[in-house]
Design goal:
The two termini are 37 Å apart. The chain has one domain (6-108). The chain is elongated. The mean pLDDT is 76. The protein has four helices and no strands. It is an all-alpha fold. The protein has helices spanning 6-23, 26-73, 79-90, 92-102. α2 (26-73) runs antiparallel to α3 (79-90).
Length: 114
């Protein structure tokens, strides 16, 4: 089963808009451009929400690392797994970006907006 990635959907949407431009009235062309502008605005809003999620995840990961180091200092063997989990949680955004780039989906990565 083949799934469409975000770049291929954008390409299809662009080609449909260009082809439709020859056959559709100018008022409908403006409507299709407004829809594309709304899609970009939606993508920007997801980027803002993603920023909040990554910020919370980063600080949660730092707290997990700190708690793991504290557990190791008290002699608990579970502290190492806490540190490893904290590193994965704190670096989740970078890990996801690298995996998307490795598999050729770099255009599908949303950039968090500050």
């Amino acid at each position: 089963m083949h799934t469409l990635s975000l770049p291929s959907v954008k390409r299809v949407c662009k080609y449909v808009c260009v082809l439709a431009g020859f056959f559709i009235k100018p008022s409908l062309k403006a409507a299709s451009l407004r829809v594309l502008a709304q899609i970009q605005q939606l993508r920007d809003n997801f980027g803002s929400a993603l920023l909040v999620v990554f910020m919370v995840g980063f600080f949660w990961g730092i707290l997990k690392i700190w708690a793991g180091a504290n557990a190791i200092s008290k002699g608990d063997a579970e502290g190492k797994s806490g540190i490893l989990g904290g590193i994965i949680i704190a670096a989740a955004a970078a890990i996801m970006g690298v995996l998307y780039a490795i598999f050729g989906l770099g255009d599908a990565v949303l950039t968090p907006k500050f």
